[in-house]
Design brief:
The chain has 15 helices and 27 strands. Helix 8 crosses helix 9 (about 420-430), helix 10 packs across helix 11 and helix 11 packs parallel to helix 14. It binds calcium ion (CA).
Amino acid sequence: MQSGINFGSKVFAKRFHYDGDDLGARLTENGTVFKLWAPTAEGVVLRLYPSGHTGEAVRTVSMQREEKGVWSWQTDENLDGVYYDYEVTVGRDSHCTADPYARACGMNGWRSMVVDLPKTNPKDWEHDRAPERQAEDIIYEVHVREFSWAESGGFPEKVRGKYKAFCETDTTLFDRGEQPTGLAYLRDLGVTHVQLMPVYDYGSVNEARPDDSFNWGYDPVNYNVPEGSYSSDPTKGEVRIRELKELVQSLHQQGFRVIMDVVYNHTYSRDSWLERTAPGYYYRTWQDGTPCNGSGCGNDLASERSMCAKYILESVLYWAEEYHMDGFRFDLMGLLDAALMERIRAELDARYGRGEKLVFGEPWAAGETACKRGIHLANQKYLRKMDLEIGAFADKVRDTIKGSVMDAAKVGFVNGARGQEHKIIQSVTAWCEKGFRAPAQSITYVSSHDDMTLWDKLVYTLDPKCQYDVFTPEVLRANRLAAAIYMTCQGRLFLLSGEEFGRTKQGAHNTYNAPIALNRLDWERAWDNHTLVDYYRGLIALRKQLPALCDKGEDAWQRMLHAEVLTSRCVSITLDNTGGTWETIKVIYNASSHAVPLGGMGWELLADGRSSFLWQTPQPIHQPAVQPVSVLILGKRGE
Ligand code: CA
């Protein structure tokens, strides 16, 4: 029956767009209501189970067809904790499917569960509040399992790799009671936001045996349910919900906001719950009917269709409201349409205040996708037309500093490239001449889960012996310079967990399913390389005191008073720091192999290539020079 239907047409939307906010299974004062949107179905059967993953249905009922493609059934019983799925018949085909709108599920997500959400709230959840926003947003990307898996982290055995590890607030290296790890370490570092790699339910790890495999989790199965393999009991639908809420509560109490990585551009497989309930509707296809693959994962969601847009918008709002998430990082945002991103931004602003919830994403795609005329994708090209508070990863800053991620051998400013000077200057003002509208839109970074770690890239390009486990002075210098550059750019700051301790994956660039032993955060390394961590710590603390860099507005670029190429591979910038301790800031980046002398009087030394804490007792300097492969950060007080 679905063949010949133009799902993208206004006629279809008019006939089948459902405005209600009650899809899924809801408990009411009078019982339980099930509603499923299945516009092309000829019949829908609801099946109820006592278990989430074994045994036969104990009851089956035929759903009633209502308006706008909705099927429903209600009972006066409270079915909290009951598992269910649907059999949807479209044409000659019948498919078993979980509920795409489910808020709880059984092990591995094949059956949905009715859940009484208030019962999943941890103690004092109603008083949970995000900490106050700081002068700067500094986002630290972690994977739940990687964070606490290593024995060196000192986490209790039973919480290692789990949500519950984030409720351990004072762990130390090997539990010896000395060097902080985990959240205690992050508090010292000064990051403001913890970004969780996917924590919605994904398909690539068997929840019955989570230790058998590892995955980043960019393969969504149940968009509105937490992943089960991180919970202490994936067989009980309510447990993962409570434990993820506890994680958020703990991070809030420890002073961090929480960002969730969301993947609305594609599903684990095209044969998803969305496809089984409304075949053909949720996915983009080319004219000849072949599926689009702009995601590189075999399917692209059609975010521009009204019920798909509604689905994504409601999902984001649900995570913000029910789990108190403070921001969203959109995977391959360049595949979603700009109008939807604008709606998400506007709805979050209306509920929580302007810009309170961070919204940003990857402004690109892995390939071409089909899009109707008049639809604009939320990609790099369109960014300038979008809301200031929709951010995007600044790949130009990343590649200018350390070299392209596409070619391991390609170098950038800090590791040998010539001719990057003007791009470095552009990076400081967040490429606002071309590209971004304001620093608010720029997520400034040199490493994320994708590609080689910063350390590995630098070792690969600078150390002929390629020793990833040796802290050679040359690589450390380049690492410090790279950090000093992006930490003195005006965008929001982002780093992959462990960048600050020279995290290595032994040169591997795409470790999405590599063993946890390679992916885990190595807390021993964090302490072996603690002088580098301290360098980051000082830069972060200094950064928060510099309005010249924290300013995110459309006029922030005007704070650039002067920019100059001093010699080849050496750049000086001067910034208006009105509102801070120092009225003017001067930063000199020297990637060359020569010391470069500087003129000018009255500057205090705030940081150099060795120490980023000089600002604590700033000394006037008389004959400044910037050492090879290093930085100088200077401040001048007002008259
Ligand atoms: Ca799962």
